[in-house]
Amino acid sequence: MKAVDEVGSQVRDPWLTEQEAARQLRVSISTIRNERNRGRLGLARVGKRVLIPMSALDAYKQAAITISCPTTNSPNSIGRLAGTSHGPTVDAHGALRRARQIASRHNGS
């Protein structure tokens, strides 16, 4: 794998061992293995060796960045900002029960 710098020349994309990647992220080797098994961290196999391109590690770090929601002050992943809300869930049965109570009061008057 190769990356391109600002000038357009190709630069080598260093490949790291799992131990080196774990050191870079300050996590255990088992965390690196779990993340790659989940498909969250890219890898390259060379024979029996598993190597992680630096660009894959950089992409993983970018995907892991969280920001605080300005409305609720709760953390949200940048990649999930445009998706569904992580706000409080609605108790559907409770809402239906309250709606029926209101309707029965309205119909009884």
**Helix count?**
4
Head-to-tail CA distance between termini: 74 Å
Helix content: 40-55%
Biggest β-sheet: count, sense, barrel?
3 strands, antiparallel
| Beta-strand share of residues | 15-25%
Regarding quaternary structure, how should these chains be classified?
single chain
Order of helices and strands: EEEHHEEHEEH
Summed over residues and divided by their number, the pLDDT gives a mean of 75
* Class derived from helix and strand content: alpha+beta
How many distinct beta strands?
7
Cα-atom Rg, whole angstroms? 24 Å
Shape designation = elongated
Spatial ordering of strands, largest sheet: 3-5-4
**Low-pLDDT ranges:** 1-6, 77-89
* Count of discrete domains: 1
Task: Give a written overview of the molecule.
- The protein is an alpha+beta fold and 109 residues long.
- It has one domain (2-81).
- 41% of the residues lie in helices and 21% in strands.
- It contains 4 helices and 7 strands.
- The strands form 3 sheets. Strands 3-5-4 form a 3-stranded antiparallel beta sheet. The chain has a two-stranded antiparallel sheet with strand order 1-2. Strands 6-7 form a two-stranded antiparallel ribbon.
- Strand 6 and strand 7 form a beta hairpin.
- Helix 1 crosses helix 2 (29-37).
- Mean pLDDT is 75; it is low at 1-6 and 77-89.
